[in-house]
C-alpha cells in the first residue's frame, strides 16, 4: 500500500509539472530554457545543482506566468540553487541578489560610514611610512580604466617624493570593481613576471596576469596607459591591510600582493568573494545574469580559496579617521619598522 501511495504522489507531481509546462506560451518556455542554459553552462557552481530537479521546480512555479517578466520568481529558484553570493539577476524591472547576512553582520559602523563618503584615495605619511587607501573602482570603459589607474599611480608618485622607508596599502574599504586600474596603478611595486590566472570550471588556466616594466598586462596586453612612470618599488617593504570590506577585485589585489616578496597581509578575513565574474545579457537586453565563472589562481595555476586570510590576524577597530589609533595600521607599522 505504501508503494502504491508513493507512486500516486509521483504521478500527481509529474502530471502537475507537465500540465504547467503545457500551459505556458512557447515564447515563455524558450525564455525559461534559455535562462536555465545560461546558468547551467556558465556558473562556477553549476555542478552542485541537480538541473533536472531544478527545471521541474522552475516550470511548476512558472505555471501562471503570462509574460517573460512574470517568470522572475520562478527563475529565482534556479538562481538561488547556485548559492552564488557574488552574483546578480536582473530582468525587466526586477533585480535580485542572494542575501549575504553573515557578511553584512561583519560590517562595522565605521566601514558603512566610510563607504557613504564615496570612493576616494586616501594618502598620507605616518612617520616614515607611506600610507595609501585603495578604494572600489567601478571603471568599465578604457578611458575610465586609464583615469582610475593614473589617479592611483599619481598618489603613489606623490608619496614617493617623501622617500618613505616602507609602505602600507589599505584594501579594507575596497569592495571591488575593476581590478585592472588597481593593479595598473600599483604596478611599480612588482617585479616583471606572471602573478596569476583565472581557473575555469574545467581547471583550465586563462587570462594570464603579469607585470612588465611597471605595466600590468593580461595575456601580454597592457591594461592601462600610465602617464607618469616612477622608478621601480619592487624591493619596498609593504604591508597590505584586509578585512570584511575587502571584496571581489579588492581580494584579487590582496592575493597578488601575497605572492610578492617583502610583503605581509594584516587584518581580518576578507569578504569571501574572491573569484572572477562575467555578465550575460539576453532576452533582447531585458535579462542579465552576473555570475561567478572562475576561481582566482596564483602564478602556479593553482585555484585559490574565495576568502583571503591575513598573515597576521588583527581585530580591527576601523579607525579610518585616526590612523594613529587604528589597530591594524599600528600592527603593520610595528612589523615594517623591524
SS-based structural class? alpha/beta
Order of helices and strands: HHHHEEHHEEHEHEEEEEHEEEEH
Outline: elongated
**Count of distinct structural domains:** 2
Termini separation comes to 78 Å
Quick structural gist:
The chain has 338 residues and is α/β, with parallel strands linked by helices. It folds into two domains: 2-79, no CATH class; 102-336, 2-enoyl-CoA Hydratase, Chain A, domain 1 (Alpha-Beta Complex).
Secondary structure layout plus pairing:
Layout: H1 2-23, H2 26-42, H3 51-61, H4 72-82, E1 88-91, E2 94-96, H5 101-106, H6 109-116, E3 122-126, E4 129-133, H7 142-160, E5 166-170, H8 179-185, E6 193-200, E7 205-211, E8 216-218, E9 221-222, E10 238-242, H9 249-258, E11 263-267, E12 275-282, E13 287-297, E14 312-313, H10 327-336
Parallel strand pairs: 4-5, 5-10, 10-11, 11-14
Antiparallel strand pairs: 1-2, 1-13, 3-4, 6-7, 6-13, 7-8, 8-9, 12-13
Helix pairs in contact: 1-3, 2-3, 2-4, 3-4, 7-8
Question: Can you characterise this structure?
Answer:
The chain is an alpha/beta fold and 338 residues long. The chain has two domains: 2-79, no CATH class; 102-336, Alpha-Beta Complex (2-enoyl-CoA Hydratase, Chain A, domain 1). It contains ten helices and 14 strands. The chain has helices at residues 2-23, 26-42, 51-61, 72-82, 101-106, 109-116, 142-160, 179-185, 249-258, 327-336; strands at residues 88-91, 94-96, 122-126, 129-133, 166-170, 193-200, 205-211, 216-218, 221-222, 238-242, 263-267, 275-282, 287-297, 312-313. The strands form two sheets. Strands 1, 2, 6, 7, 8, 9, 12 and 13 form an eight-stranded antiparallel β-sheet that branches. A six-stranded mixed β-sheet has the order 3-4-5-10-11-14, with helices on both faces. A hairpin with a 2-residue loop joins strand 3 and strand 4. Helix 1 (2-23) crosses helix 3. The longest helix has 22 residues, at 2-23. It is elongated. Mean pLDDT is 94; it is low at 1-19.
Amino acid at each position: 500500500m505504501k508503494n502504491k501511495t508513493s507512486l500516486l504522489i509521483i504521478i500527481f507531481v509529474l502530471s502537475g509539472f507537465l500540465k504547467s509546462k503545457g500551459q505556458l506560451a512557447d515564447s515563455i518556455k524558450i525564455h525559461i530554457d534559455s535562462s536555465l542554459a545560461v546558468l547551467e553552462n556558465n556558473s562556477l557552481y553549476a555542478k552542485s545543482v541537480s538541473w533536472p530537479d531544478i527545471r521541474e521546480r522552475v516550470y511548476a512555479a512558472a505555471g501562471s506566468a503570462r509574460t517573460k517578466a512574470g517568470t522572475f520568481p520562478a527563475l529565482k529558484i534556479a538562481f538561488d540553487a547556485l548559492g552564488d553570493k557574488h552574483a546578480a539577476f536582473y530582468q525587466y524591472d526586477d533585480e535580485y541578489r542572494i542575501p549575504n547576512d553573515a557578511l553584512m553582520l561583519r560590517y562595522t559602523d565605521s566601514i558603512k560610514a566610510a563607504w557613504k563618503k564615496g570612493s576616494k584615495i586616501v594618502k598620507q605619511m605616518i612617520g616614515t611610512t607611506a600610507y595609501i587607501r585603495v578604494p572600489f573602482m567601478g571603471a568599465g570603459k578604457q578611458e575610465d580604466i586609464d583615469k582610475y589607474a593614473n589617479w592611483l599611480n599619481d598618489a603613489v608618485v606623490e608619496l614617493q617624493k617623501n622617500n618613505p622607508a616602507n609602505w602600507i596599502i589599505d584594501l579594507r574599504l575596497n569592495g571591488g570593481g575593476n581590478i585592472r586600474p588597481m593593479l595598473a596603478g600599483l604596478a611599480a611595486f612588482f617585479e616583471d613576471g606572471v602573478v596569476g590566472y583565472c581557473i575555469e570550471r574545467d581547471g583550465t588556466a586563462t587570462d594570464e596576469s603579469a607585470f612588465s616594466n611597471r605595466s600590468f598586462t593580461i595575456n601580454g596586453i597592457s591594461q592601462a596607459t600610465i602617464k607618469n612612470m616612477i622608478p621601480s618599488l619592487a624591493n619596498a617593504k609593504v604591508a597590505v591591510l584586509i578585512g570584511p570590506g575587502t571584496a571581489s577585485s579588492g581580494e584579487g589585489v590582496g592575493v597578488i600582493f601575497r605572492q610578492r616578496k617583502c610583503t605581509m597581509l594584516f587584518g581580518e578575513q576578507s569578504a569571501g568573494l574572491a573569484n572572477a565574474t562575467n555578465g550575460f545579457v539576453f532576452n533582447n537586453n531585458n535579462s542579465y545574469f552576473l555570475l561567478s565563472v572562475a576561481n582566482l589562481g596564483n602564478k602556479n595555476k593553482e585555484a585559490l580559496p574565495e576568502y583571503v586570510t591575513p598573515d597576521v590576524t588583527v581585530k580591527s577597530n576601523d579607525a579610518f579617521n585616526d590612523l594613529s589609533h587604528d589597530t591594524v595600521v599600528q600592527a603593520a607599522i610595528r612589523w615594517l619598522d623591524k
